[in-house]
What we know:
alpha/beta; 23% strand
Amino acid sequence: xxxxxxxxxxxxxxxxxxxxxxxxxxxxxxxxxxxxxxxxxxxxxxxxxxxxxxxxxxxxxxxxxxxxxxxxxxxxxxxxxxxxxxxxxxxxxxxxxxxxxxxxxxxxxxxxxxxxxxxxxxxxxxxxxxxxxxxxxxxxxxxxxxxxxxxxxxxxxxxxxxxxxxxxxxxxxxxxxxxxxxxxxxxxxxxxxxxxxxxxxxxxx
Length: 205
């Protein structure tokens, strides 16, 4: 599973500098933030209900105001989402945002861009999935809207090509064009021989 750092927050700030009506930063949970109550063993609020009252579009950001007691996982895999378990999740569809925090209870603000249209799923897999199983999850439907802004719509890098190793066989030798064409050499040699014979006969006469 891919670990992504808080660099996404910088992109969110850049996007927010565009006209206010263009894209939206959604603070997950509103004033409640993204938290789990370990005493009651439940999420602070009903995040599915919060999400149902929002409209999400490509280029928007989800802003998770939380701390290191919770995790922020984004996945496009419904099976991973329903299981509340990311142990076998693929790097291609599941991303873990840790923002670089490693102290218990350390405050975090994590920005997650919405770059894939359709179903997006979010959860906390902390405590071996217990937080997700007890309400710290939600799913959203991302609309196309205005599409991705240039800052998020970058072409993929070119495919990696393995460099040749020292043990690789040498490339086959290629003969450059412009060499003596085949067949003409024998013709010229025969002509030269006839000239030599003619000269000898003249000398003998």
